[in-house]
Amino acid sequence: MSVVLTVQRNVKLDSEQYNTSSEDYTGTSGDKISVAVPASSTNWPLPGWGGFHAADLQAIWFTSDVACTLTFGTAATAHYPITLLAGGTFLWTNTDGGANPFGTDDITDLEITCTAAANIIGRTCVG
């Protein structure tokens, strides 16, 4: 089974919108996340998280309706926190030129911390 994640980048200037790029990332696996996180959650483990080997990560995208911190971890307890602002987005792709935010670790868990109830949506494309 293949997983396809399409990333579209848009710019809006006043009332005009421009599609600046569109890229497809095709992998062999990935997680599709849509979860309601309870208020006052600290290190709330994401149920059903499949994890990934960072060296094989092609793209990762997360958004939340409230401010929260996503903490990606490994069996060796390395932690990679990503802070999302309310309505904000985190996106990394292997073609952006930036270093992989997870190094080459095997990411095995994802924990979420937020003060207010949050709706979090995300997608990974691996392989």
Characterization of the model:
The radius of gyration is 15 Å and the shape is globular. It has 127 residues and is mainly β. The mean pLDDT is 90. The protein is built from no helices and twelve strands. The protein starts with a strand and ends with a strand.
Fold topology:
Blueprint: E1 3-13, E2 16-27, E3 32-37, E4 41-45, E5 52-53, E6 57-64, E7 68-73, E8 79-84, E9 89-93, E10 106-107, E11 109-114, E12 118-126
Antiparallel strand pairs: 1-2, 3-12, 4-11, 5-10, 6-9, 6-12, 7-8, 7-11
Q: Which strand order do you get reading across the main beta sheet?
A: 3-12-6-9
> Given the C-alpha coordinates, what overall shape results?
globular
First and last CA, distance: 11 Å
How does the major sheet shape up? 4 strands, antiparallel
For the CA atoms, what is the radius of gyration? Answer: 15 Å
Count every beta strand, where a strand is a DSSP E run of 2 or more residues. Answer: 12
Task: Give the class from helix and strand content and strand pairing.
Answer: mainly beta
Number of helices: 0
**Strand residues, percent:** over 45%
Q: Quote the average pLDDT.
A: 90
Query: Could you list the spans in which at least 5 consecutive residues all have pLDDT below 50?
Result: none
**Percentage of residues in helical conformation:** under 10%
- Encode the helix/strand succession as letters: EEEEEEEEEEEE
